[in-house]
């Protein structure tokens, strides 16, 4: 079947074979390799993308399921000010080591900050609980989300 959806702000129409996973469509046929595959079972969060602004594991979603919907991957960072603020904060807070978890973390954090621009540390931990990181010990990642929150609030106050 041909599916039509919005990907990082642009309209896409593409044949989606039955059973094809969203992560395979993104990485293998659309060359969006910022989305990583870790476990392939919905456990690590490395494959997180935003589907209608909510974080989902693209290894568990069929490509056909995004028909008519809105998908954002880490490659959409330039088109989304909030995503950009989170990405900058991750770099500034030193939250990136091997970087494998980073795209998924940034997308989960951006979804949290869209729903709740000033989350508590506990709310940040809860929102990122589906994203595993084997390198950082998580504290610098939580610092980065707090920093992104400050940046977003400051920008909103200056308007
Ligand atoms: S690769 Fe999808 S959750 Fe691990
Ligand atoms: S920075 Fe290496 S897995 Fe998180």
Strand content: 5-15%
The strand count comes to 5
CATH architecture of the largest domain: Orthogonal Bundle
Briefly, what CATH class of the largest domain?
Mainly Alpha
Average per-residue pLDDT, rounded, comes to 95
Number of domains: 2
Give the name of the CATH superfamily of the largest domain.
Answer: [2Fe-2S]-binding domain
**Main β-sheet description:** 5 strands, mixed
Biggest sheet strand order reads 2-1-5-3-4
Ligands, deduplicated: FE2/S2 (inorganic) cluster
**Any idea what the shape is?**
globular
Structural class: alpha+beta
Distance between the termini: 45 Å
Percent of residues in helices: 25-40%
Poorly predicted parts: none
Count of helical stretches: 5
Return the string of H and E elements. EEHEEEHHHH
Task: From the alpha carbons, calculate the radius of gyration and give it in angstroms.
Answer: 15 Å
Under CATH, the topology of the largest domain can be stated as: DNA polymerase, domain 1
Account of the 3D structure:
The chain has 159 residues and is α+β, with helices and mostly antiparallel strands. It has two domains: 2-76, Ubiquitin-like (UB roll); 79-157, Orthogonal Bundle (DNA polymerase, domain 1). The chain has five helices and five strands, in the order E-E-H-E-E-E-H-H-H-H. It has a five-stranded mixed sheet, with helices on one face. A hairpin with a 2-residue loop joins strand 1 (2-7) and strand 2. Helix 2 (81-92) crosses helix 3 (102-115) and helix 2 (81-92) crosses helix 5. The model has no long low-confidence stretch (mean pLDDT 95). The structure holds FE2/S2 (inorganic) cluster (2 copies). The site of one FE2/S2 (inorganic) cluster has 11 residues, from loops.
């Amino acid at each position: 079947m041909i599916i039509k959806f919005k990907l990082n702000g642009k309209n896409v129409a593409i044949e989606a074979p039955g059973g094809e996973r969203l992560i395979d469509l993104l990485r293998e046929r659309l060359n969006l390799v910022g989305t990583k595959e870790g476990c392939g079972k919905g456990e690590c969060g490395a494959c997180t993308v935003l589907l209608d602004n909510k974080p989902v594991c693209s290894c568990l979603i069929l490509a056909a399921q995004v028909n008519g919907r809105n998908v954002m991957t880490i490659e959409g960072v330039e088109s989304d000010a909030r995503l950009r603020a989170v990405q900058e904060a991750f770099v500034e807070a030193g939250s990136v080591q091997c970087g494998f978890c980073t795209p998924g973390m940034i997308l989960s954090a951006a979804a949290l900050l869209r729903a709740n621009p000033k989350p508590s540390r506990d709310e940040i931990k809860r929102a990122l609980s589906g994203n595993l990181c084997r390198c950082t010990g998580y504290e610098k990642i939580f610092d980065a989300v707090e920093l992104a929150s400050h940046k977003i609030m400051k920008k909103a106050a200056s308007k």
